[in-house]
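Re: How this chain folds, sequence and tokenised backbone to follow

Filed under: protein folding, tokenised backbone structure, sequence and structure records.

Contents: The amino acid chain and a row of whole-number tokens, matched residue for residue.

Body of memo: The sequence and its backbone structure tokens, given next.
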Amino acid sequence: MGVGRESRAASTATFVRRSYVFIDGAFAMTTATLNPPARADIQLAPSLALWLALLAFTAVCLALRDALPWLVTYPKDWVLPAATWINVAADAFVALFRPVFRAISAGLDMPMRAIQVVLQWLPWPVVMVAMAAISLRASGPKLAVFALITLVYVLGTGYWRHSMNTLALVLLAVPVSVTIGFALGVIAHRLPRARGGINACLDLMQTVPAFAYLIPLLLLFGFGPVVGLIASAIYAVPPMVRNTMLGLEMVPEPLKEAGLTSGCTKRQLFWLVEVPQALPQILVGINQTTMAAFSMVIVAAIIGGFEDVGWEVLSSMRKAQFGQSLLSGGVIALLAILIDRITLGFAQEHSPGRGWISLRGLAGGLAGCLLAALALRQFMPELSNPVPGSLWLPQLNAVNQVLLNFVRDHADTLEGIKDTAFYCLMLPLKVGIVGSATPAIWGFTLGPVLTAAYALLIAALTALATSRASWAAGVAVIVGGIILFFGFTGFPWPAMIALAGGLAWCAGGRPVAIFAVLSLLFILLTGLWPFLMQSAYLCALAVALCLLIGGGLGIWASQNDRVSAVLRPINDTLQTMPQFVFLIPALMFFKVGDFTALIAVMLYAIVPPIRYVEHGLRNVRADVVEAARQMGSTPSQLLWQVKLPMALPVIMLGLNQTINAGLSMLAIAAMVGTRDLGQQVYVALGKADTGLGLIAGLAIALVAMMSDRIIQAWSKQQAA
């Protein structure tokens, strides 16, 4: 044991010493080669000095990590019992206000059950005709045909009754969210002082995993469908608030002045001038709110426990019925796409379907559907009830058996893929090369020679990045090389906090740096640092792979319309598919573990890089592209030296969304055996531990907000 520890300490010291010898040479090459103007020297010098100091501090922490173990493992005696404090306060709050919230729950239960009764009472042919008419008004005959295909699919799967219960939840959650969101958006618009607090609350609502606030909701409102309804309504509020604020801010000032000149009171000016002018953006908010409510149906089923599609997805997953899981998940995805297209069609001012049927015609058609429903219920009751069971159940059982046989027959191959990816890619990032290079894992020990070779490689890459790009690229190579060598879980927490603070300082200045450091200190002091590092390694790898694969697909789609047409419905399906469904193929082939979680996170987070890269490249200014072609640029030069640099702000927005998507999947991925922040949220839900759930959820939210602030600040800096 002592020999191994001394060997690891020696390799650590050797790596640090050799790295920083070559670091100095790399930075010397930078200053000698680039030779920027004097003003640039003044701007670059403080940042360069800061990073040199941070790298030196990191080297000291790494050299002392064996002598001072608390630099890596934060002592439990230093942890603040924040979860206990929150539990005490929550217990007092619940005991005092539970009757009020139970009364609210009872008040929402009646309209929800009424909507369920109405939807279940309506004959399925009438629902199909009504949805086709609404789709025709929203976006024309293509959407009407899609609506009929979707509802026929729902009917054939045997999930008609479940789908109507899901629609009942969404139809009540959306008006609640729209009302609250519109009111908060107006308040934020009218009271600039309140805007900062409202924006902070919106950030938390959009980044805290839903599992985290399910615990206090269960304690306050009890168990049942209404709790799922309230959770869906809370999750769906932020898009409405943001779009209401944006719509009201976009109202032209001359139009307001014209209203005041015409003698409008403040109330008349708001309802007759500002709201109509902001209505298109408000309708976009309703569209996004509806989609957010749909995305919560499975989470709502966990605490709701009633007969809806979300519950069927969960039940099928627990029974390892992969065919049924995909079938029921497809129902949610198709319904979400249909509702998305309908609400988006109504939100667009010049929708292609507006000429097919007027509002009066639509109202008349819906009235006719109601009369037809009464007639069918009276004279043809056999057409009123949906088809019992799935028409494809025998085929689904056959599919399940085929999949199970495939997994059984190719178990060694699948296990080999899983082990190769884990031991060669995931484990080095998790525990570092110094922890992976053992006889039991890689078959050899990392000695001084290999350590020196790795240091030489990092130094060469640093010099190359510095000479070809900038000193910042060289620093990025150094930091990445050090983290890869020691791993996320073995990296000293003071150095990690210092590096994150330095990155935030260079990107956004003092406010962003203070927020980043305080966020990480909160996670450290509450005892969640080891789980944060587990989350960081998993999300970092997933985001990197998503950018590599999704970015490549986005570039391909931007240059090929056929590829774009093929990817578009795939992206729509991935964006509307419930998060739980992404666990199905991963579990089916690779069982539980970190690799399964990585696959699930990637499936959910790969859409933003595809969409944003394609969108950014397709919207590069045509005159710039034409000028580059006239100057003799090859297609490769045009892509790498013109289009990608100009599309960088949009691509960075895609990176931001990819990180947020990856973090939002942590709590879901915890169901397949990860030991990260998401697992802490899931464990807290099982124990009804409000304090742990809120702290772990807040930790995920802080990481998401920190990355968002850094990326946004950097993008603004580049645009300026």
